[in-house]
Design goal:
Blueprint (H helix, E strand, L loop, with lengths): L19 E18 L3 E2 L2 E6 L5 E12 L4 E5 L2 E13 L5 E20 L6 E14 L13 E14 L4 E11 L14 H8 L1 E15 L1
Antiparallel strand pairs: 1-4, 1-11, 2-3, 3-6, 4-5, 4-6, 5-7, 6-7, 7-8, 8-9, 9-10, 10-11
């Protein structure tokens, strides 16, 4: 006689039916900028900039989730991202280089729509998309480059809920794309061609960020 195969016991079978639930997350991220060069010549010099490598930063935040229907949730995830960006400026003719770091501690407030697939035993993949506002709390005037204090953008992500006996663990990967030019062009805080030539080398900068977090809900 063949034995019927038993379905695996589900942890927290009704966890996704709550109208509201809270959580928190910790993780890592990398900051980037999409740079547009001006081609301005200052004292016979033309400088170009790049961000040759990425430094990992620390991310932490809280989660507020509202149930809409069995497949869709609305969520807000206020978070802080501590990190920096390393710039390398290079003069076109001589090849002279100049390096500087720009620290940015972003307070971000995203609002996302989360779409979850069917639950398979104790795992449930999901996608999310939304918009965010960002406030740079780490700006320091007097640096060769200065970024504006506010930004808005779009974000897209993928993750998976793993249902443990007492909570959900959710690894999540998000991609954030800023929509505004965050390069501060009014540089009354610096003077002298030796410093302002680096700021003048750029005409536009838009933010990018990749965020890997572990959510506890």
């Amino acid at each position: 006689m063949a034995m019927a195969q038993r379905e695996k016991v589900k942890n927290q079978p009704y966890a996704d039916n709550k109208l509201f639930h809270l959580g928190f997350f910790v993780g890592l991220h990398t900051q980037d900028l999409l740079l547009t060069h001006s081609g301005v010549v200052t004292n016979g010099e033309t400088w170009f900039a790049e961000i040759p490598s990425y430094s990992p930063g620390f991310s932490v935040g809280v989660i507020g989730d509202m149930y809409l229907n069995p497949y869709f949730n609305l969520r807000i995830t206020p978070s802080i991202h501590f990190g920096d960006k390393k710039f390398v400026f290079r003069e076109e003719t001589t090849g002279e280089e100049f390096e500087t770091n720009v620290r940015s501690n972003y307070l971000m407030i995203p609002i996302d729509v989360k779409y979850s697939s069917f639950r398979l035993n104790n795992a449930r993949p999901y996608l999310l998309a939304g918009v965010y506002g960002a406030f740079d709390l780490g700006r320091k005037r007097g640096n060769p480059l200065l970024l504006k204090g506010t930004d808005v953008g779009l974000e897209f992500g993928i993750g998976c809920n793993f249902y443990l006996p007492f909570f959900k663990l959710c690894p999540e990967l998000k991609f954030c794309f800023g929509l505004l030019d965050v390069l501060e062009k009014n540089r009354g805080d610096i003077s002298g061609q030796e410093t302002i030539k680096y700021s003048d080398a750029l005409s536009k900068a838009t933010s990018r960020m990749i965020v890997l977090t572990f959510n506890f809900e």
